[in-house]
Amino acid sequence: MILLQFIVVLFFLYLGMRVGGIGVGFAGGAGVMVLCALGATPR
């Protein structure tokens, strides 16, 4: 599960880098939503 979460984080970092500007914030928010949907919780 940790590997899947790491891949999701890397994907959304890459997506935010490609979009730039306000897209970085949107990509970060989308990444958090996906991680929550996968069942990740803050520790």
TrEMBL record:
InterPro entries: Anaer_Dcu_memb_transpt
MF term (GO), any: C4-dicarboxylate transmembrane transporter activity
Pfam families reported for this sequence: DcuA_DcuB
Bilayer topology annotation: Multi-pass membrane protein
GO CC annotations on file: plasma membrane
Substrates-to-products reaction catalysed: L-aspartate(in) + succinate(out) = L-aspartate(out) + succinate(in); fumarate(in) + succinate(out) = fumarate(out) + succinate(in); (S)-malate(in) + succinate(out) = (S)-malate(out) + succinate(in)
Compartments, as annotated in UniProt: Cell inner membrane
Domain of life: Bacteria
Keywords, sorted A to Z: Cell inner membrane, Cell membrane, Membrane, Transmembrane, Transmembrane helix, Transport
Family, similarity comment: Belongs to the DcuA/DcuB transporter (TC 2.A.13.1) family.
Name this polypeptide is given: Anaerobic C4-dicarboxylate transporter
Source organism of this protein record: Raoultella terrigena
Lineage: Bacteria, Pseudomonadati, Pseudomonadota, Gammaproteobacteria, Enterobacterales
